[in-house]
Design a protein that fits this description.
single chain, 22 helices
C-alpha cells in the first residue's frame, strides 16, 4: 500500500508538472498518465468493465453535447450578432459600451463555455482598444474575469461546476439560485471599480459612435438555422431546469439536443467532431483516472483526515473556499476541483453541511481569475491578445491586474457561503 501511494503521488506530481510547464500538450500528457496508471494495475478494478466507476460520463456527455450545439449556433452568426448589438446599445458612451460588452460576456459565459465566449468577444474588445486608444491588456483581462464570473454562476457555464454538479447530484436550478446572486454582485462591483474613472474626450466619443452605427444583423450568416438552433438551445436549458422532475441525466438531454441540432443543420457526427474540444474531454478523462486511483490507494484520505479535524462548519467553509481558490490560481481550476471532490464527498458523508459544495465551486471558479494558469479561458484570451495586438502579459503583470479583484471576490464569497450556512439556505 505504501509503495502504491508513493507511486501515485509521483504520477500526480508528474501530471501537474506537465500541466504547469506547458512543454507538452497537457491534455495528452495527463491522459497518458491515466493510461499508465491503468497499465500498471495500481488499482485492480480499473478495467473496461468498470469504466463508469472512474470516468464521469455524465460530465463528458454534457460537455460534448453542449460543445456541438454551441459550435453550430456560432456558425450561424448568433453570438457575433450579440457582440455587435452590445456595442450598438452603448450609443457612443465608452463606459456604457464597455459595461454592456462585459455584461454580455458574463451572461453568455453562464450558458456557453468560456473559451467560446472570449473567442467571440476578443475581436470586439481589441477593435475598441485600437479605435479609441484604451489599453488592450486592460480590456482583455476584464473580459477574461467577466467570463469566469459568468461561468461560475451556473452549472453549465464552467467545467468545474459541471464536474461538481455531476458529483454532488445538485440540480441545475440549485446552482443558479445559490451562485448567481453573488456572481452578479461581484460583477457589478468590478464594473464600478474598473470603469468609474474612465472618461472619454470628444474624439473618443466620435470614434465609438461611428463604431455603434454597425448593423448587428450584418453578423447573421443563416437566419433560419439560427432561429431553429436557438429553440434547440433554449429547449436544452429548459430540460436542464426540469431534469430532476423528468428524471433524466443532463448528459442525455445535452446529447439529445446536439443530435437534433445536427438534424436541423444537416451535418454528420464526423463533421460535428470539429466542434468538440477533444483536448478538454481527454484532459478530464485522464484526471478522473488519476484521482480515482489516488482515492483507492488512500492518498485522498490523508487530506480528508486533516480537514475533518476542523469541527467548526464556518472555519471549514472558509478553509475550503480559500484552499480551492489558491489551488485554482496555481494548479488550474479543473484539476483543483477533481482532486477536492472525493474530499468533499467524504466530509458530507461524515455529517458536514452540503454548503461546502458552494464553497468549493466559488473558490475554484473565482480563484482562477488571479493568474494566467487559472483557467483555459485565461490562456486563450492572452494568446489572442498577443496574436492580434502584439501585447504580451507576463505571469506577474497579469497577477497585478487579476489578483486584487480575485481576493475581493473570494472575500465576498466567503461571507456569502457563511451566510448560506447560517440561514440554512
Amino acid at each position: 500500500m505504501v509503495f502504491s501511494q508513493a507511486l501515485m503521488l509521483a504520477i500526480f506530481c508528474v501530471s501537474y508538472y506537465f500541466i504547469l510547464s506547458g512543454r507538452f500538450k497537457s491534455s495528452v500528457m495527463v491522459f497518458l498518465m491515466g493510461l499508465i496508471v491503468a497499465f500498471m494495475k495500481i488499482v485492480e478494478d480499473m478495467s473496461l468493465e468498470n469504466l463508469s466507476q472512474f470516468i464521469d460520463f455524465n460530465t463528458i456527455g454534457l460537455l460534448a453535447g453542449m460543445m456541438i450545439i454551441v459550435g453550430l449556433l456560432k456558425s450561424t452568426g448568433f453570438f457575433q450578432f450579440v457582440a455587435v448589438y452590445a456595442v450598438k446599445m452603448g450609443r457612443g458612451d465608452i463606459r456604457k459600451t464597455l459595461s454592456l460588452i462585459v455584461i454580455s460576456i458574463a451572461l453568455l459565459s453562464a450558458f456557453l463555455d468560456n473559451v467560446t465566449t472570449i473567442l467571440i468577444f476578443a475581436p470586439i474588445l481589441l477593435f475598441i482598444s485600437d479605435t479609441v486608444g484604451i489599453d488592450a491588456a486592460y480590456l482583455m483581462v476584464t473580459g477574461i474575469i467577466a467570463s469566469n464570473l459568468g461561468g461560475a454562476s451556473t452549472m453549465i457555464g464552467d467545467p468545474p461546476n459541471i464536474i461538481i454538479g455531476s458529483a454532488s447530484k445538485l440540480s441545475f436550478n440549485s446552482f443558479i439560485i445559490h451562485l448567481a446572486p453573488v456572481c452578479i454582485l461581484i460583477l457589478m462591483l468590478m464594473l464600478f471599480i474598473w470603469f468609474r474613472r474612465m472618461n472619454s474626450d470628444e474624439s473618443m466619443r466620435e470614434k465609438i459612435k461611428k463604431l455603434a452605427t454597425t448593423d448587428p444583423k450584418s453578423a447573421i450568416i443563416d437566419k433560419k438555422k439560427m432561429i431553429a438552433l436557438l429553440f434547440v438551445f433554449l429547449g436544452v436549458i429548459f430540460g436542464f431546469a426540469l431534469h430532476e422532475v423528468l428524471d433524466y441525466e443532463m448528459a442525455l438531454i445535452s446529447m439529445a439536443g446536439a443530435t437534433i441540432a445536427l438534424v436541423i443543420y444537416g451535418k454528420s457526427f464526423e463533421e460535428a467532431a470539429k466542434e468538440v474540444e477533444w483536448d478538454t474531454l481527454f484532459f478530464l478523462i485522464g484526471l478522473f483516472m488519476i484521482t480515482y486511483a489516488m482515492r483507492k490507494v488512500g492518498l485522498i484520505d490523508y487530506l480528508t483526515n486533516v480537514i475533518s479535524k476542523v469541527h467548526s462548519p464556518i472555519i471549514l467553509l472558509t478553509i475550503l473556499l480559500w484552499l480551492s481558490g489558491f489551488a485554482a490560481m496555481f494548479l488550474s481550476s479543473v484539476p483543483a476541483v477533481v482532486v477536492m471532490i472525493p474530499v468533499i464527498k467524504a466530509l458530507i458523508t461524515s455529517g458536514f453541511t452540503p454548503t461546502i459544495w458552494w464553497a468549493l465551486s466559488l473558490g475554484a471558479c473565482l480563484g482562477a481569475n488571479a493568474t494566467t494558469l487559472g483557467a483555459p479561458v485565461n490562456i486563450v484570451g492572452l494568446s489572442l491578445l498577443k496574436k492580434y495586438s502584439n501585447t504580451n502579459i507576463s505571469f506577474g503583470n497579469y497577477m497585478k491586474k487579476g489578483l486584487p479583484i480575485t481576493i475581493l471576490s473570494l472575500f465576498i464569497s466567503n461571507i456569502y457561503v457563511i451566510f448560506m450556512y447560517l440561514t440554512g439556505w
